[in-house]
Specification:
Blueprint lengths: L6 H33 L15 H4 L1 E4 L14 H15 L9 E4 L4 H6 L11 H7 L3
Antiparallel strand pairs: 1-2
Helix pairs in contact: 1-3, 1-5
C-alpha cells in the first residue's frame, strides 16, 4: 500500500527535532552549571577571609579537552567570567559530534577553595559540589 508518505524522511525529521530539543536542554544544563560554579566561587569583596583576588575565578574554563591552561591574571567580575564561559561553551558545542564537555579549574588554589585544604582561617567554598547538587 502506497499512502504517498515518505516515512523515512518523516521519521528522520521527527528524530532530528527530538535530538535538537535534548541538545538544547543539555547546553542549558552545562551553562547553568558554569554559572553556578562561578557564583559560588570567591572573588574580591566576597571571600570569607578577604584574600581572594579573582585569580581562582579567572581559571574556570569550559572546553572539550582538559588542558593545562592556568592564568595568574585576576578576574574579579563574576559577570565577565560567566560571559567568557558562555562564549567558550558556544565555541566547543557541536551536537553532531560525540564528545565530552568539561567545566574545570586549573588554579593552584582549586583544592583549597573546593575543600578548605591548607586554609586554617576559612572552610571551603565547595563551588563544584554545590553546583552539581543543584542539577536536577
Amino acid at each position: 500500500m502506497d499512502d504517498g508518505v515518505n516515512w523515512g524522511d518523516f521519521i528522520t525529521k521527527k528524530l532530528m527535532v527530538a535530538i535538537e530539543k535534548k541538545a538544547e536542554e543539555a547546553q542549558e544544563l552545562i551553562a547553568k552549571t558554569a554559572v553556578n560554579v562561578i557564583s559560588y566561587s570567591p572573588t574580591e569583596g566576597d571571600s570569607k577571609g578577604g584574600y581572594a583576588t579573582g585569580e581562582f575565578l579567572a581559571n574556570w574554563q569550559i572546553d572539550d579537552n582538559l588542558n593545562g591552561n592556568v592564568t595568574t591574571v585576576a578576574q574579579p567580575s563574576k559577570e565577565l567570567q560567566i560571559a567568557q564561559m558562555v562564549s567558550d561553551l558556544k565555541r566547543v558545542w557541536d551536537v553532531k559530534k560525540d564528545k565530552n564537555i568539561y567545566v574545570f579549574n586549573n588554579s593552584p588554589y582549586s583544592k583549597s577553595v573546593e575543600y578548605g585544604i591548607g586554609w586554617p582561617v576559612t572552610e571551603g567554598y565547595y563551588p563544584r559540589a554545590r553546583a552539581v547538587a543543584e542539577i536536577k
